[in-house]
Automatic annotation (TrEMBL):
<dbReference type="GO" id="GO:0005576">
    <property type="term" value="C:extracellular region"/>
</dbReference>
<comment type="similarity">
    <text>Belongs to the glycosyl hydrolase 17 family.</text>
</comment>
<dbReference type="InterPro" id="IPR012946">
    <property type="entry name" value="X8"/>
</dbReference>
<dbReference type="Pfam" id="PF07983">
    <property type="entry name" value="X8"/>
</dbReference>
<dbReference type="InterPro" id="IPR017853">
    <property type="entry name" value="GH"/>
</dbReference>
<keyword id="KW-1015">Disulfide bond</keyword>
<dbReference type="GO" id="GO:0005975">
    <property type="term" value="P:carbohydrate metabolic process"/>
</dbReference>
<keyword id="KW-1133">Transmembrane helix</keyword>
<keyword id="KW-0472">Membrane</keyword>
<protein>
    <recommendedName>
        <fullName>glucan endo-1,3-beta-D-glucosidase</fullName>
        <ecNumber>3.2.1.39</ecNumber>
    </recommendedName>
</protein>
<feature type="domain" description="X8">
    <location>
        <begin position="366"/>
        <end position="450"/>
    </location>
</feature>
<keyword id="KW-0812">Transmembrane</keyword>
<dbReference type="Pfam" id="PF00332">
    <property type="entry name" value="Glyco_hydro_17"/>
</dbReference>
<keyword id="KW-0378">Hydrolase</keyword>
<dbReference type="InterPro" id="IPR000490">
    <property type="entry name" value="Glyco_hydro_17"/>
</dbReference>
<keyword id="KW-0732">Signal</keyword>
<dbReference type="InterPro" id="IPR044965">
    <property type="entry name" value="Glyco_hydro_17_plant"/>
</dbReference>
Length: 486
């Protein structure tokens, strides 16, 4: 029997779907230790290996306890040189001594993939550190080669303060006076050694009230770059493309880029703009989706950027409230929220600081509804979160079976329960910043049926996820019942 002319296309698309949906998350995390209540490194390493899909960790020193703890885990480490050590390490003998103390006793049992020489040196405006940064990178690279180590790469992370212009992205350029003198030689080093240029893009520091949705990957009008004709739907892409444009102006657009830090705080000072648990979830969850989609950016299509979220833990000794609340996990290893990196667990909805993980609530039927004393403002936030996270909210839209009564409380009740059911019916999926509770009484009424069937909800959520990812520049269509990205 002759094969259909469409069969090769369908097979190709199905293979693409399998590859994209089965790919493990390639997200790293920054493991900061400015705290006095963190678990021991051995426990952290065991937790990351057994309970998460994180396979890369960046630390801000060369802590030997951490290096020992990650031995044999297969998790790759980026270790860092302290800023103050840079001038000394610009000489080869000192660099060789540093490698002998901080690399050789642990390598290769501990997988080390990068040495980060300082952190955001240009932002310090320290002329001595700036002058010695590249010589230290070269000396450490030579020291590694003399020790017969060829798979550890040397780089240094930069803040986006290195750019004098970034809007629109095509206008990205390095600071005048630093472009040819500082960055051209650094980029030449990266090209010669096949090492990446590290940057720390933080849309959190770049948004204005009018661009908050743009920073959070939420639906927005976007930004159009008249020079390139490119349309940007999120600030992360725009910031990376501004860096790329600056590199291209110097002739180094072929050098790889690694995102050494990016994140969003889940709490901060009262009334601090943009800081909330919901915004942290929106930013980091959509960041993970975007980075692992493989679609790249408008100016760098089909590139996957090795990306390290800041941070692993909430660190209680940081100086400000927001700095203390960048963590994905609390010190007891329970999640502040889940961006999709936990193994064998559904993604979490917004949780309060006191919410704890629990087993699925599948002993008897349960529904998630608002507490009686919660304001409409808080409930509207819950609706906005749920309906932007991939859960089907059609029934509470105009004409839907649950639209009437047309009140915030009624709509929130349906939406919050839909999230709870689709996320796996764990108790922590019905918290919503302490605005919800579980009930054994079915809230369905008249023609409005509150969902309980988890299988059907999961199917709906999968379809909605496809559309939600579309909000960050992916497109989906259906082929013989399979959602495929293109």
């Amino acid at each position: 029997m002759a094969s259909s002319p469409f069969f090769p296309l369908l097979l190709s698309l199905f293979s693409l779907f399998v590859r994209l949906t089965s790919a493990a998350y390639s997200i790293g995390v920054n493991y900061g230790t400015v705290a006095d209540n963190l678990p021991p490194p051995s426990q952290v390493a065991a937790f990351l290996k057994s309970q998460t899909s994180i396979n890369r960790v960046k630390i801000f020193d060369a802590n030997q306890d951490i290096l020992r703890a990650f031995a044999g885990t297969g998790i790759a480490l980026t270790i860092s040189v302290a800023n103050g050590d840079i001038p000394t390490l610009s000489k080869l003998p000192a660099a060789q001594s540093w490698v002998a103390i901080n690399i050789l006793p642990f390598y290769p049992n501990t997988l080390i993939n990068y040495i980060a020489v300082g952190n955001e040196i240009l932002a310090t405006s320290d002329k001595i550190l700036i002058a010695h940064m590249l010589p230290a990178m070269k000396a450490l690279h030579s020291a590694l080669r003399l020790a017969n180590i060829s798979d550890i790469k040397v780089s240094t992370p930069h803040s986006l303060g290195i750019l004098s212009a970034s809007e629109p992205p095509s206008n990205g350029r390095f600071r005048r006076g630093y472009d040819r003198v500082i960055f051209a030689p650094i980029l030449e080093f990266h090209r010669r050694t096949k090492t990446p240029f590290m940057v720390n893009p933080y849309p959190f520091f770049g948004f204005r009230p009018a661009t908050l949705d743009f920073a959070l990957f939420k639906p927005n009008a976007g930004v159009f770059d008249n020079v390139t004709g490119m349309h940007y739907t999120n600030m992360f892409d725009a910031q990376l493309d501004a860096v790329y444009s600056a590199m291209k102006k110097l002739g180094y657009e072929d050098v790889d880029i690694v995102v050494a830090e990016t994140g969003w705080p889940s709490a901060g000072d009262p009334n601090q703009p943009g800081v909330s648990l919901e915004n942290a979830i929106s930013y980091n969850r959509n960041l993970v989706k975007l980075v692992n989609s493989g679609i790249g950016t408008p100016l760098m299509p089909n590139r996957t950027f090795e990306t390290y979220v800041f941070a692993l833990f909430n660190e209680n000794l940081k100086p400000s409230a927001s700095e203390r609340n960048y963590g994905l996990f609390k010190p007891d290893l329970t999640p502040v929220y889940d961006v999709g990196i936990l193994l064998n667990q559904p993604s979490m909805g917004p949780t309060s600081p006191n919410a704890q993980a629990s087993e699925p609530s599948d002993v008897g039927r349960k529904w998630c509804v608002p507490k009686t004393d919660v304001s409409d403002e808080a409930l509207q936030k819950n609706i906005d979160y749920v309906c932007s996270s991939g859960v089907e909210c059609g029934p509470i839209e105009s004409g839907g079976a649950c639209y009437n009564p047309n009140t915030v409380r009624s709509h929130a009740s349906y939406a919050m329960n839909a999230y709870f059911q689709s996320a796996g019916r764990h108790d922590f999926n019905c918290d919503f910043n302490n605005t919800a509770l579980l009930t054994a009484t079915d809230p369905s009424y008249e023609t409005c049926s509150y969902p309980f069937d988890e299988e059907k909800l999961t199917e709906k959520s999968a379809a909605m996820t496809c559309r939600m990812i579309g909000a960050v520049a992916l497109t989906c269509f259906a082929v013989v019942g399979v959602a495929v990205f293109y």
